[in-house]
Amino acid sequence: xxxxxxxxxxxxxxxxxxxxxxxxxxxxxxxxxxxxxxxxxxxxxxxxxxxxxxxxxxxxxxxxxxxxxxxxxxxxxxxxxxxxxxxxxxxxxxxxxxxxxxxxxxxxxxxxxxxxxxxxxxxxxxxxxxxxxxxxxxxxxxxxxxxxxxxxxxxxxxxxxxxxxxxxxxxxxxxxxxxxxxxxxxxxxxxxxxxxxxxxxxxxxxxxxxxxxxxxxxx
Length: 219
Hints:
Elements: H1 3-13, H2 16-25, H3 31-57, H4 67-90, H5 95-99, H6 104-110, H7 115-124, H8 130-142, H9 146-160, H10 162-173, H11 175-216
Helix pairs in contact: 1-8, 1-9, 1-11, 2-6, 3-7, 3-8, 3-9, 3-10, 4-11, 8-9, 10-11
């Protein structure tokens, strides 16, 4: 699998909205049904989008665009990732975030959550964006066959949804320990999540900028 796609998938794990949704769902009594609906709907949607892009549209690298425009897109993606990294590094946590758990508002709304709403949250928290586009293009560049591209899309999404998958597995196999494990995971990600995001997005952003500039300059 493309190392770019792997790094982008790892960076997607620490998305605040995704973590908040999974943490809140896993904290309520009906967590098995909610997490199952969340995963089924979210995975179905993001897999379909990814497969269409890598098999039908073939990203943007093999779509007939000349090197100049491929370079422009790489520079745009790289600049976006670098900007996100800088923003994450310089953003100051608000006072309210320091005193209140970030999942409180979502947990309150999930107390009477239905499977349908959980499924909708699964789709909304995994809408394709800049990161997914960059990952799909990296997959197109690395895969030699359509089947290989599809398998990489599946692997990317398995990493992207790994927190929800792990939460569902623990809820089924060790329900008594699930809440404690989620609390520990949440604390760990709060402590190191920013450093992970800044490092991964910064490295990938610089790489894409360099690759794009090389195409623009004819190198």
